[in-house]
């Protein structure tokens, strides 16, 4: 049984690794840009910074986009008749994939919030997060249903703009975008609290260790 599961794992990884790796790569682009834009010591915003800022928001929807890849999970489960294969391999693989992609989104916005806090604009953080969720909900819809990519904003902006205007006039697209916005908002709030909780716990543990070291050195 173990050998069979191992062989199935290799097969599934080969079948899914290419598109999963690509989608995760796109999800991690805004994460990398958020470190460059929002975590550096200088608060000065040059032309290059603003260009990076635009690219950041152009690629940001790729991070929550991974949540929509659950449609591949549902389709794949329907073709598999082994509960062990689904439980031990397929589901954990997709769960890890979606967690990594969405966590890239969460950390990206946490970095943005940290930057606004350093600018003295803490009151803007919540609004910036909601705006980001709304833009990403639109971006996810355009990517999943209209099959646009982030770089289409440069290569065929007119086509993207026309499609966006046409879709915003329809009831079905508005409902899908609204539901996507709600899902992203709720999941982001949960994931943000968990992420910040882990960071605070690590800082608290590090602080206690430093205090213990000081006490030990003093007693010595």
TrEMBL record:
Keywords: Membrane, Transmembrane, Transmembrane helix. Coiled coil: none annotated. The chain crosses the membrane at residues 20-38, 50-77, 83-112, 124-143, 173-191. The keyword Transmembrane helix applies. This is DUF1361 domain-containing protein. It comes from Gloeocapsopsis dulcis AAB1 = 1H9.
